[in-house]
């Protein structure tokens, strides 16, 4: 799949088949996440792969929009490690770029995925920290549910020329 095709056709998938994601595919998704750009090339991220059914089923107890995890074979939590960050506050952008890379890689491999926001919601952040025993210097940022799609929404062209400005507002 070409890069622009992946960008134009990627959709959030919330319905998954009960079929595991291969280790090779998982490796490719993690590698794609780590290829993201980051300020000063700090790469402040860590990734937690969650495939334990009990843990996946616990997340909807504190994250109201994560019910698809009851069927998803796995999820990847993108975190930022404060020890890897300089004084610049670019970690959120860095981890967001890594998350988008994971979403696009999943789509390119024929997998479905959806981005579930964690940071800055304090209930979701503390829920993930507690559930996954995350050190206090590590900040959970985004969770990506991943699996083989049961169905994929049709692509939507979201280009809006009225939102484009040139040289001034």
TrEMBL record:
Keyword Oxidoreductase found: yes
User: What keywords would UniProt list here?
Assistant: Flavoprotein, FMN, Oxidoreductase
**Any GO molecular function:** oxidoreductase activity
**Pfam families, A to Z:** Nitroreductase
Which top EC class applies here?
oxidoreductase
Q: In this protein, which residues make up the domain named Nitroreductase?
A: 7-55, 65-148
EC number of the protein: 1.-.-.-
> CDD domains from the xrefs?
nitroreductase
InterPro entries per the UniProt record, alphabetical: Nitroreductase, Nitroreductase-like, Nitroreductase/BluB
Q: Which domain of life is it from?
A: Bacteria
- What name goes with this protein? Putative NADH dehydrogenase/NAD(P)H nitroreductase
């Amino acid at each position: 799949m070409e890069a622009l095709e992946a960008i134009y056709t990627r959709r959030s998938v919330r319905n998954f088949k009960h079929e595991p994601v291969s280790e090779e595919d998982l490796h490719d998704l993690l590698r794609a996440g780590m290829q993201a750009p980051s300020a000063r090339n700090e790469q402040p991220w860590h990734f937690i792969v969650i495939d334990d059914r009990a843990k996946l089923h616990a997340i909807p107890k504190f994250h109201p929009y994560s019910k698809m995890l009851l069927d998803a074979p796995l999820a990847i939590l993108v975190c930022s490690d404060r020890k890897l960050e300089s004084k610049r506050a670019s970690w959120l952008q860095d981890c967001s770029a890594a998350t988008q890379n994971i979403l696009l890689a999943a789509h390119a491999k024929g997998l479905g995925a959806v981005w579930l926001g964690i940071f800055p919601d304090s209930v979701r952040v503390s829920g993930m920290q507690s559930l996954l025993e995350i050190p206090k210097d590590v900040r959970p940022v985004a969770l990506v549910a991943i699996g083989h799609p049961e169905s994929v929404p049709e692509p939507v062209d979201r280009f809006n020329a009225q939102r484009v400005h040139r040289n001034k507002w």
